[in-house]
Amino acid sequence: MKTPSINLDGQEVVVVDKSMFQDLVYKMASNMRESKRKKISNLKEALEILGCSKTTLYKMLKDPKCKIRKSSVNGKFITESLDRELERLDRIR
Hints:
two-stranded antiparallel ribbon; elongated
């Protein structure tokens, strides 16, 4: 669909009707929702974020105060929870 444009004071202005504007707002809102979804990290990424070995990570997971949450996908972790655990460990040290 080609939108009409008007030349005002040397600047090109695009005319947008209400339905087109609502579509643009909907697309922007859906992009924002996608970016807020929980990100998932695999084991290698989790080890890089926490800066520890595999055995240390599994020991940390056994700690009842640990903030790390496993994802429903096998061997994956929720990135946000890794960040929270890292902050918790920094406060302890």
